[in-house]
């Protein structure tokens, strides 16, 4: 089969190589999936660069989530069978940018019927992260104000949609006119172009000086630091990631005097600590997709041969919404 592999870490366009490799075989508790669509995530770029918290042995295949069709099941697998259309996270070092992938059967979830393969592949990590971040960590309530950074990206646009579904007023921060348009289409009530506007001033004006009740931050760096200037009394800042490349050092004295909470979110830990909650969140997301309330913003569907370029574009921050590889 064809599979993209990283033999030496570096920029995705240079590190990824399309190889011919043997088709993997499922072991006990595993399933072999024919990859129908593989969503590109920022962690794929970090994996190529050797800067992700997980560092699989070289060579490895990147691609952390996919929509696939069950081709074969290993021993001791129940509840799923050949032909089933599913979504799941990949099992590194055998990632999703390949024609086939082996994954644990325990993590496989039915693909929502309301979404096509590319949309289904993009529903999993970003939307689960948004669901747990907004509901379980921040306890977002109807009528509150939600500030979302990188609101036109895959993770941010998911948070915008989920915030609106929860009844919040959503303020989205983006970089550029094209991304502003995408954030509005995702449902943001107010959109701030950080290149020409001060989001702190906009948030204060939109909330009558009170500030944002919840801040959803996958960017870090200056986005986090400036968010502390416009978070509300008893507000919550959800730290999702650091796509800016800068990890901020929170001033805990500032959190104390302004009475706000800083909440970390590593969604992948829930698969170990509370897998039932992951499945419950998937059921809720499937229902929202069927209602048309949420729908992944897929801006590009690219063939297998263009996977390295696609990962590089996400790494460079030039994309809007999701880019999905179709093997």
Mean pLDDT: 96
Count of helical stretches: 12
Tally of distinct domains: 2
| Low-confidence sequence ranges | none
Beta-strand share of residues:
25-35%
First CA to last CA: what distance? 11 Å
**Gyration radius, in Å:** 19 Å
Give a count of the beta strands, DSSP E runs of length 2 or more: 15
The first-level CATH class name of the largest domain: Alpha Beta
Relative helix content: 25-40%
Describe the global form. Answer: globular
Largest beta-sheet details? 7 strands, mixed
> Could you say what the CATH architecture of the largest domain is?
Alpha-Beta Complex
CATH topology of the largest domain: Quinone Oxidoreductase, Chain A, domain 1
Order of helices and strands: EHEEHEEEEHHEHEHEHEHEHEHHEHE
- CATH homologous group name of the largest domain: Medium-chain alcohol dehydrogenases, catalytic domain
Query: What structural class should be given to the helix and strand makeup?
Result: alpha/beta
Question: What is the compact description of this entry?
Answer:
The chain is an alpha/beta fold and 327 residues long.
Q: Secondary structure elements and their pairing?
A:
Blueprint: E1 2-6, H1 12-15, E2 16-20, E3 30-39, H2 42-49, E4 65-73, E5 85-89, E6 100-104, E7 109-110, H3 117-121, H4 125-137, E8 145-149, H5 154-165, E9 169-174, H6 177-186, E10 190-193, H7 199-206, E11 212-217, H8 221-227, E12 231-239, H9 252-258, E13 261-264, H10 270-273, H11 275-291, E14 298-303, H12 307-315, E15 322-326
Parallel strand pairs: 8-9, 8-11, 9-10, 11-12, 12-13, 14-15
Antiparallel strand pairs: 1-2, 3-4, 3-6, 3-15, 4-5, 5-7
Helix pairs in contact: 2-12, 4-5, 4-11
């Amino acid at each position: 089969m064809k599979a993209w592999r990283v033999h030496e870490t570096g920029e995705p366009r240079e590190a990824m190589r399309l190889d011919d490799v043997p088709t993997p075989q499922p072991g006990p508790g595993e399933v072999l999936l024919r990859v129908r669509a593989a969503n590109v995530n920022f962690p794929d770029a970090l994996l190529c660069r050797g800067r992700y918290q997980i560092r699989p042995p070289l060579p490895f295949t990147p691609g952390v989530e996919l929509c696939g069709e069950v081709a074969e099941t290993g021993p001791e697998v129940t509840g799923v069978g050949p032909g089933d259309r599913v979504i799941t996270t990949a099992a590194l070092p055998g990632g999703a940018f390949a024609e086939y992938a082996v994954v644990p059967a325990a993590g496989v979830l039915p693909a929502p019927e309301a979404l096509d393969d590319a949309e289904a592949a993009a529903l999993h990590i970003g939307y689960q992260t948004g669901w747990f971040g907004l509901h379980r960590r921040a306890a977002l309530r109807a009528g509150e104000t939600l500030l979302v950074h990188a609101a036109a990206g895959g993770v941010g646009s998911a948070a915008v949609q989920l915030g609106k579904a929860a009844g919040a007023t959503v303020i989205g921060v983006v970089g550029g006119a094209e991304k502003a348009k995408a954030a509005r289409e995702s449902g943001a009530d107010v959109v701030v172009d950080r290149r020409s506007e001060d989001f702190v001033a906009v948030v204060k004006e939109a909330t009558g000086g009170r500030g944002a009740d919840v801040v959803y931050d996958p960017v870090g760096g200056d986005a986090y630091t400036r968010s502390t200037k416009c978070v509300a009394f008893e507000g919550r800042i959800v730290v999702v990631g650091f796509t800016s490349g800068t990890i901020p050092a929170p001033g805990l004295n500032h959190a104390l005097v302004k009475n706000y909470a800083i909440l970390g979110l590593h969604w992948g830990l829930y698969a170990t600590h509370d897998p039932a909650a992951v499945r419950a969140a998937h059921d809720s997301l499937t229902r929202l997709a069927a209602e048309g309330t949420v729908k992944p913003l897929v801006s590009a569907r690219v063939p297998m041969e263009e996977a390295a370029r696609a990962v590089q574009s996400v790494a460079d921050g030039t994309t809007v919404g999701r880019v999905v590889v179709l093997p």
